[in-house]
Every structure is written in structure tokens, then in C-alpha cells.
């Protein structure tokens, strides 16, 4: 029984502790901006309360923040509303709906401008102790409905593959901070799909079926001025048919971080139908000139047929064009424009001529079969496959095509007669080169011409075969170029640039004589040459056709080649006998078997004949100057490399230092150009003799020493190490002037005694600028200059990680009396000192001990306070009578 009494007391005490929670009443974050005539919803909830779980709510409003309040509606008192609002409450225009036991929602079905003001949500008390807030307010702003949506009517019918532009104007009068969004959608029957939404924060959201299409660029948003927006749907298909709508929405952004739609308007733009490509696609095949049917050709002539394509949406289509002879594909132009020839050799179809296919105009494709024979006769048809790209302009095709239509033209019958001209072709050399760069001229002559019909013409094709092993590769043949029956020049791919620049020329000097001329013959031009003369006849349509071809015998063009050579001589112009003086040398180039050339120069240096070779400066054949890896960036102004003559260069080094002593020479490369505008080609290279800089230091000599006042310090003390320099002999000028002498001092540290791995701690240059390296220790470094020859390194707040071996390295700089320039002496390392920092036992233990003591005291104090609270709450006999829920009342408290 005693145990049950104690259990009851504990439960009662816990319930009393729960009653001490502070009540919190919250409403929708404001201020709220709403549009007149729209529905308004304001939520209110209460938490941290005691009493029954279901709470009641009362709503009031006032025009001003501190004005007189007017009762709106209550969740439990039907007579609560102000008489001026009773009709609106009775009609349901103003209502309150319970969402949860502790949450309700005030609704105004059609808000009016007079409803603007401040709204209070109040909860009557059911708590045993008054604590927290019992009401909350929010401001409601009501603005006029100024949203206007004005779409433009799209075209009712568009061809498949074309672009559809949907224009919509969405505006509103800006009186409060509101935002706009525009949404395009398409309706097919009873189903409506969203295409794209722009806004309200400038973002773009696409419908599920249009996401990839928008990413590919098939749908583009074009924002304009003054609320004008355009949505462009590229490459429409029949699936894009439907009724398009434009929706404009006005939004407000509330303090709670939510976008709230306050008014929207949807307008129908119009119904769009898409005309399939197959309805308008038309294909015709015909000869380029009027003729009888069937088309009659002579052997060797060229067959020319034209395939004409028309469609309502032709610019939006990608066409695959295929010519067929007797039902077999002979040539195809793919969507990418690549032409694939499918002519076969041998077999039942015989040997057909090589077929070509080219696009000659919009929707026109010309088939050409050169040198027709009897095997080229037959029935020719043109097949067109029309494709539409599914993606947009930014997709780059990506292979996402769908075939919209396929059609084949009516047939064209072709027959070939048997007439063939004959003649003899001879090739001779008019100018034969004796060495590289001399001109070459070859003449191709035609004799004994028979059966060339009236109006017939001659063309020529030149071909070159390299000598065996030329360039280290196999023997290859390349077409140089040709003159067709019209006299048009058709250059070969290998010789195209040289023909266009005029270095090589193809001419017809007489009706039966052709010439090939090289202005400057190169070594790669040696080899065997052949000319092929073709006879061209005019057919009944007025076109000229290639009817026969004859080839000359081979003609060899070659000469003895001599390799170019260079001789480079370097000589000293100015001697550097003391530090700070100027050194200057020149390099002259003499060449043989080279001709016109450009030169690149490398100035090289090594400290000894066995030392590492480094590059000081370079000069390209285009006179572009660069510094090499051995050049100190601070001394680049002291280095000069110039071209002093057609084949002579000068190098100058001002203010020489001890580190500049060594051997200098020129490495020169000759470069040639085969023709103007081409890149440089390396011909040969050579190095000059070496010129030496060797002078002795005439300044004073130095020594450096390091010492510390103590080698063992305690943690957080300051360790001091002094680096002192001693000048032996006279100073550069007077021996007493400190302005003529400066030092660069660096301190190094290694963890182990005698260790090889050292770390730079800090440095001071000769101008007094101090540089400290990044440290892992909490200690700090400073450098102090005590006098002209003494520098002090201070380690403040030493730690165990500062224990180790230290030494300094000094570099003296002195002002040369002979040249007046600063001269760098050699580096001087000091001996090493070892610094020991004692281990701090108390520092490593004091923080854990202090934390333990503080935690023990805190736990004890918390236990005492908890005991007192339990004694006060659980052992006191109190009786409390809850107040009425109708009004807020003051509570009596013990």
C-alpha cells in the first residue's frame, strides 16, 4: 500500500511538471498578400499546452495594428461574430475549419479590399499555470486583381518539321512585391499536359514528357520585354497537334519561405494541326537537258541525271538520296552529306562507271557517271527518305532522327552507243632541274587524234609517283591536278595548297598541248610523272561527256642532292674581367647548299666543361625572344640577344656575377619555307666554339659563425641564435662604409642531429625583407639585425617540436669599386647548434585535471537541484479548480 502511494505521488508530480510548459500560439507567417475576390486561408495552431487535447480558437481583426479589434468567428461560440460579419459567416463566406485538435484554419471564400488589416488568433486558457502566449497576429494585405493574360493565336496548320512559336503576354500592375509565372500547356481531348513553366523566380520547369526535348534544344524559351514571352517548339511532328493554352499566375513569397499562388488566369491560344511530310513530298528524276526517251549516250560520255525534291517543309527536312539502276543502289548521299558509292565490279551487273552524287541546289541532287559504257545502260530511279530531327538546334543531331516519309521517282531509261575517239600521248621535259629550288617544266602533247566528234575537247590529269624509299617510306602515287573538258582546274588534295598559291601551275598552251610547271622544285618532287589525256564529247543535251582516256609513258625527274651545312663562329666583343662588368659576344653563321633561310639561336652555358648544359636565351626564326630555365627572373633586364646582321647575332650580359663564370656558346638552327605562308621546316643546325668568362673576385673575403646563449630552454621560453659574419681584408671601397656591403641570410632546421633533410625556417634578403616559412608549431619566429654583420634568430614560445639542429647560410653582396655594380659573393654556411626544449609534464596534464574537477562539481550541483525540485513538486498537497474555457481569467498561484 505504501508503494502504491509513492507511485501515485510520483505520477502526480510529473503531471505537474508537464503543466509548467509555456503555451505557444502561432499563425501563418506574414505579412500576407492576397488578391481581391480570391480565397484566403490563415492557419493557427497551439502547442505546449495542458488540459484537454482539443483546443478552441477565436479570431479577431483590426484595421490598424493597435486599433479596435472586431470579433470574426469562434470555434465554439456561434454568437461570437460581430453583427457586421454575421451574414458573411452565415453564408459560409467566412468560416473556420478544424484541421487537428490543436490547429484550425480561417477561410474567406472571396476576400474584399475591406478585409485588409491585422488578424488575431486567440486560444482560451486550459492551463493550470499561465505561461507563454495565448494569441498571435498576422497582417493581411488585399490588392486588386490586375493580372492580364493576352496570348497570340498560333497558325492553325503547320508543316511537319517546321517551328511553332507560341506567344503570350502576362502583365499586372505592381503595387506590392508580387511575382509572375507563365505556363504553356497543350490539351488533346480531355487530357492536358504542361509543356513549360517560367517563373516565378526566373526558373524553368518542364513537363515530364518535354524534359529531354527542352534539354536538347527542341523547346526554347524567348523572354521579351513588358511581360511578353515566346515558346518555340522546333521540328514539330504530328504528336504536337492539339489545343494550346497559356496560363499566367501571380505569386507572393512569404516569410515562411514558401511561394503562394494568389491569382491565376488561363487563356486558350488556339488549335494547331500538323501536316504530315508524306502528303506534300514529291520526287522527280530527269535528264539535265531535253532528249528522246530513252536517253542515248556515246561510250566515254558522262551520264547526268537530276533528282528534284519538293515539300511544304523542305528546309526542315534532312534527306537521304539514293540512285538506283535496275533496282540496285549505285550511290547514296547520307543525312550528313557523306556520299557512298555502291557501284560493283564484275558479276551479273557488269562493270559500271564510277558514280558521283552532289547537291546542286535546294532540293536538287545530280547523279554523274563518268565514262559510261554499255554496262551503264538501264532503268534509273531516285529514292528519297525524309527525316526530321527529334532534338533541337543544340542537340547536334545525336542520331535522334525519325523517318517522316519515303518516295521513289518515276524511272528514266538510259542507253549507251558505241563511239570512242583515239589518240597518242607523249610526255617530255622542257626544263629539267639540276638542284633543289630550280624550276621544272613538263609538256604533255597529243597526236594522231581520230574519231573526236565536232565540238569535242581534251582534258588532262597529272600524276606523280615518288622515288622508292623517298622520305623513308614506301613508293606512293598522288594526283597533282587535272583540267576537265571545260578547262576547270581540279587540284589534288596533296598539291591543292601549292596550286592555289601559284607555286605549281597547270596550263593548256595549245588545244593539243598541256604543261606542268614548278617554280621551285623540292626534293619531294623527284620521281616519275605521267599525264593522262581524256576526250570529251558534247551529247544531245549539250553537256560534254568523257568518252575515252589515254596515258603517256612515265618520265623521271631527279637530280643529285647536297645536304646543307652550317659553320658558326663565336668571338668575344667585350671582356668581363671584374664582377659587375659587361660581357658581350657575337656569333656569325656561314652556310652552304642552303639558299634563303631563317635562323633560330640558343645561347647555352655551363660552369665547366663537364658541367650541366643550360639554355640562357632563345631567338626564333620569327625573332621571338624567350628566356631559358637558367635565367634568374630578376636579371632578365641584364640579358640582350639581337640579330645584328643577315647571319650574325650578338649576346650581351650586363653586371656579371661570380655565378655567371663559365663557358658560353651559340646553338644555331637553319629553317626554310617551301612556300610563303607555310610553317618553318628544319634544314640543319650547328654549334659554335665556346667563349669563357673567368674573372677572380677582388672584393673582401668573409666567414660566418653561429652561436646560442643557451642550448636548453623550457617550453614557452624564447630561444636566441646569433649568426655573425666577419669581413677579412679591405672592404670594396674604404673598408668602413657599411652602405657598400649587404647580406642575405637564411636559417635552416633539421630534426635529427647531423640529419641531411633540412627545412628553411626564415630568411632576410639584402634589402631587409623578412620571409618566414609555414610552421606546424605554435611558436613564432622573428629576425633581428643587431648590427651590420650580426643577425639574431628568435624563437618565441618554444615547443617540443622546435628541438633540433639549426644553422645559417649567408650570401654577401658588395659594391664593386671598379664597375659601381653590386656583386654577389659565394654562399657561406655556418656550423650547427642543437637546441633542446624540455618536455612540459604539468602543461600536458593540467587541462585534463581541470576538466575532471569541473565535471565532478557540475554533476554534484545538478543532483542537489534535482532533489530540491522533486521535493517541492511531489510532497506538497495542492488543490486546483480549472477555470471556464469561455474567457481568459487570471489564475491563483501558490
Automatic annotation (TrEMBL):
Which residues lie in coiled coils? none
The record's keywords, sorted A to Z, are: Disulfide bond, Immunoglobulin domain, Membrane, Repeat, Signal, Transmembrane, Transmembrane helix
Query: What residue stretches are annotated with the Ig-like domain?
Result: 22-131, 151-246, 290-384, 421-548, 564-685, 700-829
Q: Does the keyword Repeat apply?
A: yes
Keyword set includes Membrane: yes
InterPro entries noted in UniProt? Ig-like_dom, Ig-like_dom_sf, Ig-like_fold, Ig_sub, Ig_sub2, Ig_V-set, IgSF_V-set/TM_domain
Q: Where in the cell is it found?
A: Membrane
The record's GO CC annotations read: membrane
Q: What is this protein called?
A: Ig-like domain-containing protein
Annotated organism of origin: Perca fluviatilis
Amino acid at each position: 500500500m505504501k508503494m502504491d502511494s509513492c507511485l501515485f505521488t510520483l505520477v502526480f508530480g510529473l503531471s505537474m511538471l508537464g503543466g509548467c510548459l509555456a503555451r505557444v500560439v502561432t499563425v501563418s507567417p506574414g505579412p500576407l498578400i492576397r488578391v481581391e475576390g480570391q480565397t484566403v486561408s490563415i492557419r493557427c495552431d497551439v502547442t505546449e499546452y495542458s488540459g484537454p487535447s482539443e483546443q478552441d480558437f477565436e479570431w479577431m481583426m483590426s484595421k490598424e495594428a493597435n486599433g479596435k479589434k472586431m470579433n470574426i468567428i469562434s470555434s465554439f461560440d456561434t454568437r461570437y461574430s460581430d453583427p457586421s460579419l454575421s451574414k458573411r459567416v452565415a453564408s459560409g463566406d467566412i468560416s473556420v475549419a478544424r484541421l487537428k485538435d490543436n490547429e484550425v484554419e480561417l477561410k474567406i471564400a472571396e476576400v474584399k479590399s475591406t478585409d485588409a488589416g491585422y488578424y488575431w488568433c486567440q486560444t482560451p486558457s486550459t492551463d493550470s499555470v499561465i505561461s507563454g502566449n495565448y494569441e498571435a497576429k498576422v497582417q493581411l494585405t488585399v490588392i486588386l486583381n490586375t493580372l492580364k493574360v493576352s496570348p497570340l493565336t498560333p497558325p492553325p496548320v503547320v508543316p511537319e518539321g517546321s517551328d511553332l512559336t507560341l506567344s503570350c503576354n502576362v502583365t499586372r500592375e505592381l503595387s506590392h512585391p508580387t511575382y509572375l509565372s507563365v505556363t504553356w500547356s497543350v490539351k488533346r481531348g480531355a487530357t492536358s499536359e504542361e509543356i513549360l513553366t517560367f517563373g516565378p523566380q526566373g526558373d524553368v520547369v518542364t513537363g515530364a514528357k518535354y524534359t529531354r526535348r527542352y534539354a536538347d534544344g527542341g523547346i526554347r524559351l524567348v523572354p521579351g520585354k513588358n511581360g511578353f514571352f515566346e515558346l518555340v517548339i522546333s521540328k514539330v511532328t504530328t504528336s504536337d497537334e492539339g489545343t494550346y493554352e497559356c496560363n499566367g499566375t501571380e505569386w507572393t513569397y512569404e516569410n515562411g519561405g514558401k511561394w503562394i499562388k494568389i491569382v491565376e488566369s488561363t487563356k486558350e491560344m488556339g488549335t494547331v494541326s500538323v501536316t504530315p511530310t508524306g502528303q506534300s513530298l514529291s520526287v522527280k528524276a530527269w535528264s539535265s537537258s531535253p532528249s528522246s526517251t530513252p536517253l542515248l549516250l556515246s561510250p566515254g560520255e558522262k551520264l547526268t541525271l537530276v533528282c528534284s525534291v519538293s515539300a511544304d517543309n523542305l528546309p526542315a527536312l534532312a534527306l537521304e538520296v539514293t540512285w538506283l539502276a535496275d533496282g540496285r543502289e549505285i550511290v547514296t548521299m547520307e543525312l550528313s552529306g557523306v556520299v557512298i558509292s555502291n557501284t560493283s565490279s564484275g558479276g551479273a551487273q557488269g562493270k559500271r562507271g564510277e558514280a558521283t552524287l552532289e547537291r546542286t541546289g535546294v532540293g536538287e541532287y545530280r547523279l554523274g557517271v563518268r565514262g559510261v559504257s554499255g554496262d551503264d545502260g538501264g532503268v534509273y530511279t531516285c529514292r528519297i527518305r525524309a527525316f526530321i530531327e527529334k532534338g533541337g538546334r543544340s542537340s547536334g543531331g545525336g542520331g535522334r532522327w525519325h523517318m517522316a516519309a519515303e518516295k521513289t521517282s518515276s524511272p528514266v531509261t538510259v542507253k549507251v552507243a558505241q563511239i570512242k575517239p583515239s589518240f597518242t600521248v607523249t610526255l617530255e621535259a622542257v626544263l629539267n632541274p639540276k638542284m633543289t629550288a630550280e624550276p621544272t617544266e613538263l609538256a604533255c602533247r597529243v597526236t594522231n587524234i581520230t574519231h573526236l566528234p565536232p565540238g569535242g575537247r581534251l582534258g588532262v590529269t597529272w600524276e606523280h609517283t615518288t622515288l622508292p624509299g623517298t622520305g623513308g617510306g614506301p613508293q606512293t602515287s598522288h594526283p597533282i591536278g587535272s583540267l576537265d573538258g571545260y578547262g576547270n582546274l581540279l587540284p589534288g588534295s596533296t598539291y591543292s595548297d601549292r596550286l592555289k598559291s601559284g607555286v605549281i601551275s597547270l596550263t593548256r598552251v595549245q588545244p593539243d598541248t598541256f604543261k606542268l610547271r614548278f617554280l621551285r622544285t623540292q626534293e619531294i618532287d623527284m620521281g616519275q610523272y605521267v599525264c593522262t589525256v581524256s576526250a570529251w564529247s558534247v551529247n544531245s543535251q549539250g553537256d560534254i561527256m568523257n568518252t575515252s582516256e589515254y596515258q603517256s609513258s612515265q618520265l623521271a625527274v631527279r637530280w643529285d642532292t647536297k645536304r646543307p651545312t652550317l659553320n658558326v663562329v663565336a668571338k668575344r666583343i667585350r671582356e668581363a674581367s671584374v664582377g659587375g662588368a659587361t660581357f658581350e659576344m657575337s656569333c656569325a653563321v656561314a652556310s652552304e647548299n642552303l639558299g634563303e633561310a631563317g635562323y633560330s639561336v640558343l645561347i647555352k652555358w655551363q660552369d665547366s666543361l663537364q658541367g650541366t648544359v643550360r639554355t640562357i636565351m632563345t631567338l626564333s626564326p620569327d625573332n621571338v625572344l624567350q628566356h631559358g630555365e637558367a635565367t634568374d627572373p630578376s636579371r632578365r633586364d641584364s640579358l640582350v640577344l639581337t640579330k645584328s646582321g643577315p647571319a650574325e647575332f650578338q649576346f650581351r650580359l650586363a653586371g656579371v656575377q661570380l655565378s655567371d663564370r663559365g663557358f658560353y656558346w651559340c646553338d644555331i638552327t637553319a629553317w626554310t619555307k617551301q612556300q610563303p605562308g607555310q610553317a618553318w621546316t628544319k634544314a640543319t643546325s650547328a654549334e659554335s666554339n665556346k667563349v669563357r668568362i673567368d674573372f677572380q673576385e677582388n672584393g673582401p673575403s668573409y666567414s660566418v659563425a653561429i652561436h646560442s646563449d643557451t642550448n636548453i630552454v623550457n617550453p614557452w621560453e624564447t630561444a636566441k641564435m646569433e649568426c655573425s659574419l666577419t669581413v677579412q681584408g679591405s672592404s670594396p671601397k674604404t673598408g668602413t662604409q657599411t652602405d657598400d656591403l649587404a647580406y642575405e641570410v637564411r636559417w635552416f632546421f633539421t630534426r635529427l642531429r647531423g640529419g641531411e633533410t633540412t627545412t628553411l625556417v626564415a630568411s632576410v634578403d639584402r634589402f631587409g625583407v623578412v620571409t618566414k616559412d609555414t610552421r606546424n608549431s605554435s611558436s613564432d619566429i622573428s629576425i633581428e639585425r643587431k648590427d651590420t654583420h650580426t643577425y639574431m634568430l628568435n624563437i618565441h614560445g618554444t615547443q617540443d617540436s622546435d628541438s633540433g639542429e639549426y644553422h645559417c647560410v649567408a650570401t654577401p653582396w658588395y659594391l664593386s669599386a671598379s664597375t659601381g655594380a653590386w656583386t654577389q659573393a659565394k654562399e657561406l654556411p655556418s656550423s650547427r647548434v642543437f637546441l633542446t626544449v624540455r618536455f612540459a609534464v604539468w602543461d600536458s596534464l593540467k587541462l585534463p585535471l581541470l576538466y575532471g574537477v569541473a565535471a565532478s562539481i557540475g554533476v554534484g550541483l545538478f543532483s542537489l537541484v534535482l532533489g530540491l525540485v522533486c521535493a517541492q513538486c511531489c510532497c506538497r498537497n495542492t488543490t486546483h479548480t480549472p477555470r471556464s474555457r469561455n474567457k481568459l481569467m487570471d489564475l491563483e498561484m501558490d
